[in-house]
Amino acid sequence: MFKIMFSNWDALLSGLGYTLLASVIALIASLIIGTAFALMEISLHKWVRVIGKAYVEFIRNIPLLVIAMAFYVIVPQFIMQMDGFTAGTIGLTIYTSAFIAETVRAGIQSVPNGQMEGARSNGLSYMQAMTHVVFPQAIKLVIPPLGNQFINLVKNSSVLAFVAGFDLMYQGKLIANATFNTFDTYLAVGVLYLVITMPMSYAMRYLEKRWHTA
Amino acid sequence: MSMIEFHDVEKYYGKFHALKNINLTIDRGEVVTIIGPSGSGKSTLLRTINGLELITSGQLIVNDYDLADRKTDMNKIRKNVGMVFQHFNLYANKTVLENITLGPTLVLKADKAQAEKEAMALLDMVGLADQAPKFPAALSGGQKQRVAIARSLAMKPRAILFDEPTSALDPEMIGDVLDVMQKIAKQGMTMVVVTHEMGFAKRVGDRIVFMADGQILEDATDVKGFFDHPKEPRAQEFISKILNH
User: Fold this and answer.
1) How many CA atoms lie less than 13 Å away from A179 in the CB half-sphere?
2) Higher per-residue pLDDT: A209 or A125
3) Is A122 an 8 Å CB contact of chain B?
């Protein structure tokens, strides 16, 4: 394993970089998009709720690979040129956003209704009540499940390998094909994924603990 | 001068007829207590006044705003009509002081330092100035409710609605909350109080409304007289039950 790792260090490092980059972009974007759809799912307006629910149900019931392929194959044919990295990252973002939407929605809805009623009776608008009272409480509740989503996201970024996204998995595939040493290569790839996900896991646990006592 | 006017108000939840032909006018500065068996529509009636529940038909005027009109901005009504809940509903993510200043700073655009000064004065009034930096979870029920009252007073409302403010409290906590409410009543605040505290109704109330099955069965300005000689059989039954147990 170490021999493979050191002789292909540059390729693996570049793969790790692309995996990290795709993960960070998808994490931030899916958090924003997911939260927006969560708010839509609990909107006071029926048609906004319908759109929110439709998006979440549609996206989360399609395999990630299919979504990524759609952006890699279909979008360039009809709409605009897109490289594998972009297509994969967009696919990953959209796929993850549906799960984040459900997580955040559940968090908001588990904040007791009295918090919203108290705030509205205090003269706050719906949005003010959401931003200052309900949402900050919901975020604490969703830290653990959100952590799961983020770790899944990093691992799911391996979908980039299938759309030529130059990520860690993609580099691993190339190295395995060139060296025929499948076992050691994927072992090395696995270890490098752990290098990203394990610190995330611990960071999430730390946040959970700290915010729980606050 | 009337603060709250119900004219032929009906309220349905699906097929359930929650409020039946409500006609009630409450003047500015009046303290009205609403009593009645559970499920009689007392809380529903109270919650229509600040638009937490919408009426199905009829007319409801609060502080000169027409609540049945879809164009009426509920936020404007709620700015002027405070509410105190059975379960306090303090903001769990804010300190006691922040609970009180959030409304004034966000809604009334008050200056933060000024809002904090006024909040401290209110906390002093309800006897909780030393609790300002704590979070609600660290307070007792009676303290929470007094903070909730201070929170609604901070908005300088024209009226305050109380939805069973002492029902979730331990008996020894009730007195402190009722004392604060009496203080506010003396200052001329319009108050509508759904309660089971008959002592408060007698001592502080200008008027008592008895509800059952979604209707107002009795509406008396002679509160003592009502307790001694309720006219309606349902009211007689209710009074005898709560006084003789």
Assistant:
1) 18
2) A125
3) yes
The residue-averaged pLDDT of B36-47 equals 93
Which one of A115, A117, A123 has the shortest CB-CB distance to B92?
Answer: A115
**pLDDT given for residue B134 in this prediction:** 96
Q: Which candidate from A115, A120, A123 shows the least CB-CB separation from B91?
A: A115
DSSP-based three-state secondary structure for B22: strand
Query: What residues does B35 pair with on adjacent strands?
Result: B210
Report phi then psi at A62, rounded to 5: -110, 140
Of B78, B102, B108, the CB nearest to A121: B78
- Does the beta carbon of A67 lie under 8 angstroms from any beta carbon of chain B? no
Of A82 and A28, which is predicted with more confidence?
A28
Residue A41 pLDDT grade (very low, low, confident, very high; cuts 50, 70, 90): very high
**Which of B29, B61, B36 minimizes the C-alpha distance to B48?**
B61
Q: Does B90 sit within 8 Å of A132, measured CB to CB?
A: no
Where are the alpha helices (H) located in B50-157, listed in sequence order? 74-80, 96-106, 112-125, 141-153
Report residue B122: phi and psi, to 5°.
-65, -40
Mean of per-residue pLDDT scores for chain A: 91
Q: Is the ipTM of this complex over 0.85?
A: yes
Domain B2-243 has CATH 3.40.30.10: no
- Smallest CA–CA distance, residue A113 to chain B, in Å, is 9
Q: Does B78 touch chain A (CB under 8 A)?
A: yes
Between B245 and B203, the more confident residue is: B203
Q: Say how far apart CA A34 and CA B68 lie, in whole Å.
A: 36
Confidence of residue A213 (pLDDT cuts 50, 70, 90): low
* Of A21, A157, A156, A165, the residue nearest A82 (C-alpha): A165
> What digits encode the pLDDT tens for the residues B124-162?
999 999 999 999 999 999 999 999 999 999 999 999 999
Interface contact A118-B78, CB threshold 8 A = no
- Taking the CA of residue B32 and the nearest CA in chain A, the distance in Å comes to 19
Domains of chain A are 2-213 (1.10.3720.10)
Given a contact cutoff of 8 angstroms between Cβ atoms, the answer to whether A118 and B90 are in contact is yes
Contact A123 B151 (CB under 8 A): no
Q: Report yes or no: B49 and B62 within 8 Å, Cβ to Cβ.
A: yes
